[in-house]
Amino acid sequence: MKTMTCKQLGGPCDFALHGNTADEVIKTQDSHLKEMVASGDETHQSALKDMKGRWKKPVSGLAWYRKTKRDFAALLDD
After folding, report:
1. Cα–Cα dist 25/34, whole Å
2. Most buried residue among 10, 23, 51, 52 by CB atoms closer than 10 A?
3. 3-class SS letters over 1-20
């Protein structure tokens, strides 16, 4: 298992996101962003908007995804 923070994935905070794969960490961040915005945290709104819009722009979205996968692979296991 590895850990990345919300900030490492483009969010505004240092909330720890854990997963065995980069995809798990990305899904965890997706849930984290949605929960924070639903609870009224405005600082996460732009990150949630970016996350949702990422897949509307396949080239830049794929670049972000590949970078995130490389960053995750470079981490040491917890």
Report:
1. 14
2. 51
3. CEEEECHHHCCCCCCEEEEC
Element of type H or E holding 59 = helix 58-74
Separation CA 63–CA 59 (nearest Å): 6
* Model pTM score: 0.89
Residues 34-78 have pLDDT tens digits of 999 999 999 999 999 988 888 788 888 899 999 999 999 999 999
The residues, ordered by sequence, that sit 6+ positions from 31 with a Cβ below 8 Å of its Cβ are none
pLDDT greater than 90 at residue 30: yes
DSSP reduced 3-state for 41: coil
Phi, psi of 59 (to 5 degrees): -70, -55
